[in-house]
């Protein structure tokens, strides 16, 4: 009887050990399969991350750029040095101020909401109301040269134009279709139905802008060589002229809302309200700047002239003051009722 009991105990122990081993093996299998699934998910996530299209960081990729693209990069990044007042050869001095193209087209043209050049070549040729004609991307660049840069046009066969266009094309490589709208122009604002309040604009400027652009709007020169600006002047003799698009309150407010204060705001995460951007844009454009000759020839079809264009002639009876400082909705309503034209700026 004792022998049977001992045998039973030994069998029970053996059975228990087997059960425990089976349990341990089962737990190990579950853990192993779970870890494998986790690894597979991580690999898939990493592959997805690698496949997400990102804007190019031109400065970090400059050594790998084709020569013509690299030339375009330097032209837009150090405009004053290569085709402005600081150019070594007089014949290369096309820009009339010391701004760089990248002072407005941020991240060297890659930043959404700042008139980005990503995908821009697909949108040209396009109709432009200012010239009342179909224009090329080269025409658009020369429009900036004459207005934002307060200078003169580059020749149609200019190697500088070729290089700038090549750089724009390089920026756009691989742009997915679903991302194209993100980089087009400036996001719209809800236009306040009031006159620009210069006092509010001044308060916004003092709070958000003065640290970079200075009390007198003169900007901050490049501290390395004093050629060009780290932060551009917003008015005065070295700023954009009065024929530039940025001299229109609505256009300026759209840019400011999406990009300023610098490195704090983006088009999808702005800091200023529509009203703050509107009033500070009016304040900035209340100061003097270089004069563009022959602006009376702009917009041959005056019906197509943006309502916030601050210089005449116009085809309406609203005052020059209202065209400069608003309110703009009544002017927009007039063009809608009189000509069936829906205006957004």
Overview of the molecule:
This protein is mostly helical. 43% of the residues lie in helices and 3% in strands. The chain has eleven helices and four strands; from the N terminus they run H-H-H-H-E-E-H-H-H-E-E-H-H-H-H. The protein has helices at residues 2-51, 58-61, 67-77, 79-83, 137-146, 159-171, 198-213, 249-259, 274-284, 320-325, 329-339, and strands at residues 126-128, 133-135, 220-221, 229-231. The strands form two sheets. A two-stranded antiparallel sheet has the order 1-2. A hairpin with a 7-residue loop joins strand 3 and strand 4 (229-231). The longest helix is centred in the N-terminal third of the chain and has 50 residues, at 2-51. The radius of gyration is 30 Å and the shape is globular. The model is unreliable at 41-50 (pLDDT under 50).
Write the layout of secondary structure elements.
Elements: H1 2-51, H2 58-61, H3 67-77, H4 79-83, E1 126-128, E2 133-135, H5 137-146, H6 159-171, H7 198-213, E3 220-221, E4 229-231, H8 249-259, H9 274-284, H10 320-325, H11 329-339
Antiparallel strand pairs: 1-2, 3-4
Largest sheet: 2 strands, antiparallel
Tell me the β content.
under 5%
How are the strands of the largest sheet arranged?
1-2
The topology string of helices and strands comes to: HHHHEEHHHEEHHHH
Low-confidence stretches: 41-50
